[in-house]
Write a structure and sequence with these properties.
The complex is a heterodimer of chains A (about 600) and B (about 190).
Chain A (H helix, E strand, L loop, with lengths): L1 E5 H11 L4 E4 L6 H7 L6 E4 L3 H13 L4 E6 H17 L5 E7 L13 H7 L2 E3 L4 H18 L3 E6 H4 L1 E6 L15 H4 L3 H24 L3 E4 L5 E6 L1 H10 L4 E5 L1 E3 L3 H10 L2 E5 L5 H8 L18 H9 L26 H8 L6 E4 L24 H13 L8 E7 H17 L5 E6 L28 H8 L3 E5 L4 H13 L4 E6 L10 H6 L8 E3 L18 E4 L4 E4 L9 H5 L5 E3 L5
Parallel strand pairs in A: 2-3, 2-4, 4-5, 5-7, 6-7, 10-11, 10-13, 14-15, 15-16, 16-18, 17-18
Antiparallel strand pairs in A: 1-8, 6-12, 9-11, 19-22, 20-21
Chain B lengths: L1 E9 L4 H14 L3 E6 L9 E9 L12 E6 L2 H6 L4 E10 L6 H4 L9 H6 L4 E4 L1 H8 L5 H12 L7 H8 L5 H14 L1
Parallel strand pairs in B: 1-4, 4-5, 5-6
Antiparallel strand pairs in B: 1-3, 2-3
The chains are: A alpha/beta (about 600), B alpha/beta (about 190).
């Protein structure tokens, strides 16, 4: 049967067909839909882990215990999972095990453009790189065979355009794999130094075997058009190269990319007068080609950043400029993403903004990073998952050294980020007697990546109900003495609470408790806890509105200023009645719309 | 030969659903099809775009600057933002709708006034008020399918099995209104 699948759907199908029994991940664009799709296959136990390290460790345990297992994450997630990865590379697997990294050339939704192919080389493990959805599925099945045959975890490298592009896929059937009965194997899995020294040699022997395999695998293949121009490419860059060069070049398509095939590359280079290396991010293939003493064109002519789309290739190699319409720049205004109508973060940031001069804000990864933009402009830095509490603590320590600087650090992260690694950062603050103000914006979901469940949401990935973890109790157990949990849509309460925290000389935690407007499923208890959430609407009394636009400082997209009569109105289709603008209006011109009460 | 289509708009306008429906219909009609979208941050009211490429054989899933045969903009300013993706002689379909960005809403910058007049000066530009048409049908959200109708007509592919794709991809209670929206779109072009 043929289907049109995204790379993420296709790779999930491959995991299913490969007979995988356990999969774990932490959501992150562009990888998120992989586990969501795996979760639809009831033969596989699919779980959200609190972070990528935990996901990979769970997957390692599943492999040791004898079942095929898969971990999936975005590129920066592999940084978090690097610790177990590098030892897993030494121990090898029992049942096959694959780690998907979803890289982001062009940084559509990420903070950096790191090239995770380097991780395969660094950890000395096998790597595969699909170019389209069909390959994503087929290669994934082979990845498990390679993992078991060579006793190696496999790094499966995808990129945004492979993950989020759709192309046609021929489906196959699931092949069940017998579980390998668990037997204790001290000299394989207990990575103490004495054993590590032995494993170190087997890693090198494995690399040699993999290098031989790389020469013969079907995933490294030459396509001949009888040209003197040769192109070496992997991943989506191969599709781009084909589009740009068409049949004017020969191709060496590399799908198995660690270790790279020495002989295949040498022969290909020798047979062609000019060789172009088309790859996104780092000169990973290029440096290998040059190490073989072969000449090629790579990052010396191609850009080192961004996507290597056909237009880029044509411009650089063929010196073809597309005939392009140049739009009038004065008719374009930026459209940055913003908080949704009814977003529970809005009220908190509106009030916090009034303290701008007294505070420094350490931000984190999640929807609340949007507070960096208009009209809040409230984020001094944003580094990585969980860094708000810890970087805030370090910053406060230094600020306090300056007797003339009395600013307070406000560190802000969401519920899922708190469970991810924020919990460790908060332990650090308490242990070291820090005095930062730590805010957990608990919207009871992992928002930015598209409403995935987490330990605080009350559901597991495959919809099984669970007791939501109580953030307030966790924070108190860690040793935070000053904790307040508030409704962020109650501006008076938010203001009082921020003032309370600013007065304290010790670390505090403010938990804002209101669900994401996009949260998909609720338990009965939730419905009671958040009465009438999103079921009402607000409206502007036209005779009372003076057009002062004070309400617009909330940054709500449902508020529209009518330029003709110089008054506000509220878009009835998008307003969900959070009442934040209603509380801001100094003229009481905004009220609950009686039709919806 | 492959044809390139780009749909652009504001997060939440339904560009992705219309892209999915068109992609599925093209596949069912026997074309090789690739589709690409960028989402993530852009879901939150940001600018969104999705690409469809189809023909006998398609390699790259991405529509490049200067290469779209058809550009459909669900919002005025987005039409200008992505205009450089259109082939100089390509067909431009614009929904006559203004949606504020945070910058224009906060009053930092004015929403540009004369976009439609500017776009009208080029040939092969078609401007529709799909929002009103959809609202009259009873659901403003189907403006995406009204625009899909105009696009399919402009492509000269009225026989594409779009209604079947709607049945496969839309929730049952919205199938009828989406079919109506599509047919009105066809007749508007």
């Amino acid at each position: 049967m043929k289907k049109i699948f995204t790379g993420n759907e296709a790779v999930a199908r491959g995991v299913y067909e490969a007979g995988v029994v356990y999969a774990s991940a932490y959501p992150g664009t562009p990888s998120t839909e992989i586990l969501e799709n795996i979760g639809t296959y009831k033969e596989i136990v699919a779980e959200w882990a609190p972070n990528e390290k935990v996901a990979l460790e769970s997957v390692i345990g599943a492999s040791i215990a004898g079942g095929r297992s898969l971990a999936s994450m975005k590129h920066v997630g592999v940084n978090v999972a690097a610790d177990p990865l590098f030892t897993f590379a030494y121990t090898g697997v029992t049942a096959g095990s694959v780690l998907i990294t979803a890289d982001e050339p062009g940084m559509h939704s990420s903070q950096n453009e790191q090239d995770n192919r380097n991780y395969a080389k660094f950890a000395k493990i096998a790597m595969l790189e699909p170019s389209n959805s069909q390959e994503a599925k087929d290669m994934m099945i082979d990845a498990f065979d390679i993992s078991e045959r060579f006793n190696t975890p496999v790094l499966f490298r995808m990129t945004t355009r492979v993950c989020h592009s759709k192309s046609v896929v021929e489906l196959g059937e699931r092949v069940e794999q017998d579980l390998i009965p668990y037997e204790k194997n001290f000299s394989k899995y207990v990575a103490v130094p004495a054993i590590g020294r032995q494993l170190r040699h087997s890693v090198e022997e494995r690399l040699n075997k993999l290098a031989d395999f790389s020469e013969t695998t079907k995933w490294n293949k030459v396509y001949t058009n009888g040209s003197k121009v040769g192109v070496i490419a992997s991943g989506i860059a191969f599709e781009y190269a084909k589009e740009a060069f068409n049949d004017t070049a020969d191709y060496l398509k590399l799908g198995f990319t660690n270790p790279l095939p020495t002989k295949l590359i040498e022969e290909f280079c020798d047979q062609h007068e000019k060789v172009y290396i088309i790859e996104e991010n780092d000169p990973y293939i290029e440096e290998f080609v040059r190490s073989l003493g072969k000449e090629c064109y790579g990052k010396d002519i191609f850009p080192y950043t961004g996507e290597m789309t056909p237009d880029v290739i044509r411009r650089v190699v063929l010196e073809q400029e597309m005939d392009v319409i140049e739009p009038r720049e004065d008719l374009i205004v930026n459209r940055p993403p913003t908080f949704c109508s009814g977003c529970p973060h809005r009220g908190f940031f509106y009030e916090l903004g009034k303290k701008r001069k007294k505070i420094i804000v350490a931000g984190d990864i999640g929807c609340y990073s949007l507070a960096v933009g208009e009209p809040y402009n409230l984020m001094d830095w944003l580094i990585c998952m969980g860094a708000a509490f810890s970087s805030g603590h370090g910053a406060q320590t230094v600020i306090d050294k300056n007797p003339d600087d009395s600013r307070r650090l406000v560190s802000i992260m969401g519920d899922s980020t708190f469970f991810h690694t924020g919990i460790n950062s908060l332990i650090n603050t308490v242990y070291n007697k820090g005095k930062t103000i730590n805010v957990i914006l608990d919207n009871r979901i992992t928002g930015m990546t598209g409403q995935q469940d987490n330990p605080g949401s009350g559901f597991k990935l495959q919809n099984e109900e669970n007791e939501p973890m109580d953030i307030e109790k966790i924070v108190k157990a860690i040793g935070i003495k000053h904790v307040r949990k508030i409704n962020p849509n109650d501006l008076k309460l938010v203001k009082e609470t921020i003032n309370w925290a600013l007065e304290l000389e010790e670390a505090s935690v403010i938990i804002t408790d209101w669900p994401c407007v996009l949260k998909k499923q609720y338990k009965d208890e939730d419905v009671e806890m958040y009465p009438k959430a999103w079921q009402t609407k607000d409206m502007v009394l036209q005779d009372k509105c003076v057009g002062c636009k004070a309400c617009m400082r909330s940054g709500c997209p449902s508020l529209v200023f009518d330029a003709e009569n110089k008054k506000m109105h509220i878009d009835e289709t998008t307003c969900v009645g959070c009442d934040v603008c209603l509380q801001i209006c100094p003229y009481d011109a905004i009220v609950k719309d009686e039709k919806y009460v | 030969m492959s044809k390139n289509v780009k749909l652009v708009g504001v997060g939440g306008q339904g560009t992705i659903l219309s892209t999915k429906i068109l992609t599925q219909a093209l596949l069912n009609a026997g074309y090789d099809v690739k589709m690409s979208e960028i989402h993530g941050m852009s879901q939150r009211g940001g600018s969104v775009s999705s690409d469809i490429r189809f023909g006998d054989h398609v390699s790259s899933p991405v529509v490049e600057k200067g290469s779209a045969d058809f550009l459909v903009a669900f919002e005025q300013m987005e039409a200008v933002r992505y205009l450089d993706y259109l082939k100089p002689g390509g067909i431009l379909i614009v929904n006559d709708l203004k949606i504020n960005s945070m910058l224009t809403q906060a009053g930092k910058v004015k929403y540009p006034e004369d976009i439609i007049e500017y776009l009208k000066t080029r040939e092969n530009t078609y401007i529709f008020d799909a929002t009103s048409v959809a609202t009259k049908l009873g659901n403003a959200r189907v403006l995406n399918i009204v625009l899909l109708g105009t696009l399919v007509k402009a492509m000269g592919l009225e026989n594409l099995p779009i209604e079947k794709a709607i049945e496969d991809l839309v929730k049952p209670r919205f199938i009828d209104i989406n079919k109506q929206a599509f047919n009105i779109g066809l007749s508007m072009m």
